[in-house]
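User: Can you predict the 3D structure for this chain?
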Amino acid sequence: MKKILIVEDDEAISNLERDYLVLSGFEVAVANTGSEGLFMAINNDYDLILLDIMLPGADGFAICKKLREKKETPILFVSAKKEAYDKIRGFGLGANDYIVKPFDPAELVARVKAHIANFERLTSREAGRRNTVIEYGGLKIDEDARLVYKNGREVGFTGKEFDILLLLMKNPNIVFSRDQIYDKVWGMDSYGDTATVTVHLNRIREKIEDDSNEPRYLQTIWGAGYRFKT
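Assistant: Here is the predicted structure, written as structure tokens:
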């Protein structure tokens, strides 16, 4: 169940908002002052916040500004202030939407649902993007883009070089034999000389190490294989 925080000093309006949201399947909390709303918003996790502007204790603009320093929770202003200046100020402080009173409760619920769904899509996409990037020290590899960076600068890699480095970086500190690397990168059904693995590893070292003779990342474990050391 999605959780909504309403920060509204007008009891009739907060009750209206709460009733429609509850009927739509939301769990709703209500704060009647700005200071109470700010405290609740910071110390609890909500999926969306409905925020009035003219509030006792702290106005909605101040609350929005402080919240944006700590959280990315969608914020919808619901206010009788309808001047363009107020809307621009609200968006400038990080609000996701601005609804003018009086409002259609059904439209309010529709906007709440839309903003929650949009926020979940964005955060899910960003989380997936972050998961494709692996970074240790000054070395970074982006799996989706198939790019490697050393100290912030892109380094050119062949396809097999990239696949070998990706395998090792996704399994840090684990030792892989030359045969294991060949099977995982070239495929178990491939026919070839596994000595090519050593050639590729040497090329990778030249590209990612400050001193390929004393590698920091790509280490040889004599008699066992290779590992990416973190």
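The chain has two domains: 3-130, 133-228. The mean pLDDT is 90.
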